[in-house]
Design goal:
Layout lengths: L4 H20 L3 H38 L4 H29 L10 E7 L4 H20 L3 E9 L5 E9 L3 H5 L4 E7 L10 E11 L13 E6 L15 E6 L4 E5 L4 H27 L16 E6 L4 E4 L4 E3 L2 H5 L5 H23 L1
Parallel strand pairs: 4-9
Antiparallel strand pairs: 1-3, 1-5, 2-3, 4-5, 6-7, 7-8, 9-10, 10-11
Helix pairs in contact: 1-2, 2-3
């Protein structure tokens, strides 16, 4: 892909304009807005400058290669070969920065894992998935905090919601949204038969308070007593919180010990779900334009199968099959699934960019 020089000039002009306006801006909101745009544009502008310099150098070398001095011409041709090998990678790196990208790419995320069909085995599988993401987050230096949990009758989780904080969490985990299916012999199976069960995963970008404004009049907040297994730590006060967003009917709960913390946690999950609702509405409008299998975020779609007897993991969106399930399910090799999904998404983004040049 050869990026038009006019597009590079456009990026550099806008970067210089933002840089100049930052020096004179005095209003707080404008400074914040310009600072955010500057941070987004700087890596793009740096790459654009490098590419422009490489192209200019190539033109100089072409002139030198036509020099009557054979030694000078030979040296210029050698350097031309080197720069011709470097230019395509520069073009691709810059194209990826310029390609349409998810505005929430670098955001932290809310992870929701729920048992689906399969009874107790589905809850156990939901527990396996959550621990997989916990380990994966730990390896990437992200922080996981459980917001709400409903445990399964024999282990695992009927539902668990957690926040994962770190740079680029949503960009790496967003492709996990969907139905995950497991095929294995459950511990409770006496006949050795393979059962199929499922769990659903939702990954929502965590948003700042300023991104989603919630009117207090649109909320119904109820407090209730958390259920517990008994003992000295069981809730004896109505500290659990249930928040209902009346315009949409979205309900979120949190049931830790502190009512104040529960309200804050529930509001964070509510903001993420409202933000995702906006994203889903926008995706629906773009559905004809975006036919890539990757990144649809459709949480009703079966995206992956974990076949334990064969040690096989299959991602159905890109027809990827790996035979390292034990390492994937503990999070150690999850990147071997996620990286190809990101690569496929990059191909689609580059194709979209090329279409915009036509």
């Amino acid at each position: 892909m050869r990026l038009p020089q006019a597009r590079l000039d456009q990026v550099l002009d806008r970067f210089r304009e933002v840089e100049a306006r930052m020096e004179t801006a005095s209003a707080g909101p404008e400074i914040v807005r310009l600072g955010k745009e500057y941070a987004e544009l700087k890596p793009v502008a740096d790459f654009a400058s490098r590419l422009a310099a490489a192209r200019a150098e190539r033109e100089d070398l072409e002139r030198m290669a036509a020099d009557e001095d054979p030694d000078m011409a030979a040296m210029a041709r050698d350097e031309l070969d080197a720069i011709d090998a470097r230019l395509p990678e520069l073009e691709r790196e810059l194209a990826l920065l310029l390609a349409p990208r998810d505005a929430d790419e670098n955001a932290s995320a809310i992870l929701e894992v729920r048992a689906g069909t399969g009874g107790d085995e589905a809850a156990l599988f939901a527990g396996d998935l959550f621990r997989m993401y916990q380990r994966y987050a730990s390896e990437h230096g992200w922080r996981v905090e459980v917001e709400s949990v409903s445990e399964g009758d024999v282990g695992g989780y009927k539902e668990i919601i957690a926040s994962i904080e770190g740079e680029g969490v949503f960009g790496r985990l967003k492709f996990e949204s969907g139905v995950h299916r497991v095929q294995r012999v459950p511990d409770t199976e006496t006949q050795g038969r393979i059962h199929t069960s499922a769990a659903t995963v939702a990954v929502l970008p965590e948003v700042e308070d300023v991104d989603i404004v919630i009117n207090d009049a649109d909320l119904r907040i109820d407090t209730y007593r958390s259920s517990g297994a008994g003992g000295q730590h069981v809730n004896k006060t109505d500290s659990a919180v249930r928040i209902t967003h009346l315009p949409t009917g979205i309900v979120v709960t949190s049931s830790e010990k502190s009512q104040h913390q529960n309200r804050a946690r529930a509001m964070k999950v509510l903001q993420a779900r409202l933000h995702q609702q906006k994203r889903d509405a926008l995706d629906a409008q773009r559905s004809e334009a975006r036919k890539s299998q990757v990144g649809s975020g459709d949480r009703s779609e079966r995206i992956r199968t974990y076949n334990f007897p064969q040690g096989r993991v299959t991602d159905h969106r890109i027809n990827l099959t790996l035979y390292n399930l034990p390492k994937v399910i503990v999070g150690e090799a999850l990147d071997e699934v996620i990286n190809p999904l990101i690569a496929e998404d990059q191909v689609a983004r580059l194709a979209s960019l090329e279409d915009s040049f036509d």
